[in-house]
């Protein structure tokens, strides 16, 4: 944390996009690049993160700022193809594809909660996914992977950074795309990603504050990543709606 060193936060339009101003200073990335985002709506959202900081700046709460820094600095130096391949690789270990046989109650819960999402994804993308109780996981057809590669290629680099961020939170490409396509809510996606943990909590009880904190943190990161994808990939209708709100 760092002491808040500015009074006012504003946005302005520059040559490369929209910039964030902290008083009269322009925000920079960790690698000292000018912090410039592609849409006004995203700039407003980032400015809101900075403006909501109190006496100290809690960087760990500023997920949109962090995602923008990652998109601008690209610290891992990956190109679009590498980002897409990394995202699709999650299919091989996707949370909703790995099932248990014991205990029967958890196996039934996974079937009832995860099967509808898998079925939706198979219909939505015209692919075969399936599930498995083997430690090796399901055998995902190459055609399924290539379909997701083609679909993800329709997103720009900024949005892909957000998609990968959401996938790493949920440990699932299927849940992430269901969320980004607005088939399920953030709360539902997080619940489905934590299904076994929630089952154990219901059975053995909640550890006071710890589980609740983890749940809230996961929801916050997942919501921020999803918002980031939408603000980086959609048209001005989102911008106008955000400004009106």
How would you sum up this structure, described in words?
The chain has 11 helices and 6 strands. The protein is an alpha+beta fold and 245 residues long. The chain has 2 domains: 2-73, 2-Layer Sandwich (ATP12-like), CATH 3.30.2180; 80-233, ATP12-like fold (Orthogonal Bundle), CATH 1.10.3580.10. Helix 1 runs parallel beside helix 11, helix 3 (80-89) crosses helix 5 and helix 4 packs across helix 7 (173-180). The radius of gyration is 20 Å and the shape is globular. Plays a role in the assembly of the F1 component of the mitochondrial ATP synthase (ATPase).
List the helices and strands and how they pair.
Blueprint: E1 2-3, E2 9-13, E3 18-22, E4 25-26, E5 36-37, H1 40-51, E6 56-57, H2 63-73, H3 80-89, H4 104-125, H5 142-152, H6 157-170, H7 173-180, H8 186-193, H9 195-204, H10 210-233, H11 236-244
Subunit structure: Interacts with ATP5F1B; involved in the assembly of the F1 component of the mitochondrial ATP synthase (ATPase). Interacts with FMC1.
Protein name: ATP synthase mitochondrial F1 complex assembly factor 2
Family: Belongs to the ATP12 family.
Radius of gyration, in angstroms, nearest whole number: 20 Å
End-to-end distance: 30 Å
Shape: globular
* Helicity, as a percent range: 55-70%
Question: What name goes with the CATH superfamily of the largest domain?
Answer: ATP12 ATPase
In the residues, how many domains can be counted? 2
Class computed from helices, strands and strand pairing: alpha+beta
What's the helix count?
11
Whole-number mean pLDDT: 91
CATH class assignment of the largest domain: Mainly Alpha
What is the architecture of the largest domain at the second tier of CATH? Orthogonal Bundle
* Beta-strand share of residues: 5-15%
* CATH topology label of the largest domain: ATP12-like fold
Question: Sheet bearing the most strands, described?
Answer: 4 strands, antiparallel
Number of strands: 6
**H/E series:** EEEEEHEHHHHHHHHHH
């Amino acid at each position: 944390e760092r002491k808040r060193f500015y009074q006012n936060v504003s946005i302005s339009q520059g040559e490369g996009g929209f910039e964030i101003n902290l008083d009269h200073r322009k925000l920079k990335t960790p690698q000292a690049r000018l912090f410039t985002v592609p849409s006004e709506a995203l700039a407003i959202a980032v400015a809101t993160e900075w403006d909501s900081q109190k006496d100290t700046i809690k960087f760990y709460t500023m997920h949109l700022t962090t995602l923008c820094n990652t998109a601008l600095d690209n610290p891992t130096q990956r190109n679009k193809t590498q980002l897409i391949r990394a995202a699709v690789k999650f299919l091989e270990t996707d949370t909703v594809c790995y099932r248990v046989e014991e205990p029967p109650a958890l196996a039934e819960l996974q079937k009832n909660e995860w099967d509808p999402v898998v079925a939706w994804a198979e219909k939505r993308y015209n692919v075969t996914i399936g599930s498995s109780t083997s430690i090796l996981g399901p055998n995902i057809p190459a055609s399924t992977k290539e379909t997701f590669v083609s679909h993800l290629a329709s997103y720009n680099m900024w949005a892909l950074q957000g998609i990968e961020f959401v996938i790493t939170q949920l440990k699932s490409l299927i849940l992430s795309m269901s969320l980004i396509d607005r088939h399920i809510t953030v709360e539902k996606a997080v619940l489905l990603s934590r299904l076994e943990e929630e089952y154990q909590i219901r059975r053995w009880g909640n550890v006071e504050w710890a589980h609740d904190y983890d749940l809230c943190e996961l929801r916050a990161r997942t919501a921020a990543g999803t918002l980031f994808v939408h603000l980086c990939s959609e048209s001005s209708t989102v911008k106008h709606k955000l400004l009106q709100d």
